[in-house]
Every structure is written in structure tokens, then in C-alpha cells.
Amino acid sequence: MTPTTAVTMLFKRIVVTDSYPVDLTLTDREKTTNELMNTVEKFPVNKINSKEEALNWLEEDE
């Protein structure tokens, strides 16, 4: 099947059913992954520009 044929079939199906013939809802796993990614993005980030800054940051917890 060529891409043109596939697209034509898709468009015909959309017209006949008056809807998109593919389920676009997220799975539970995708929802959980998105929630995790959104949570992680809120974590504070320290920008380290030098070896000295890295060593200082590593020694902070000691």
C-alpha cells in the first residue's frame, strides 16, 4: 500500500464515520510518564560551571 492510498483510505473513513478512526487517548503508562516528567521539571537545578563548583557542591552534604 502506498502512502497516498493509506491517506485516501483514512480520509474516506473520517468522512463515513464523522470521526477520527484512531484512538488518541493516552494509556495509563503514558499519563504516569507525563506526570513524572512534569514533577521532575519542577526540581531545582544548580548550574555548575567549573570543577571547583562541582567539588564544592559535592562537599556540601558532608
UniProtKB/TrEMBL annotation:
InterPro entries: Arc_rbn_hlx_hlx. GO terms for biological process: regulation of DNA-templated transcription. It comes from the Bacteria. This is Type II toxin-antitoxin system RelB/DinJ family antitoxin.
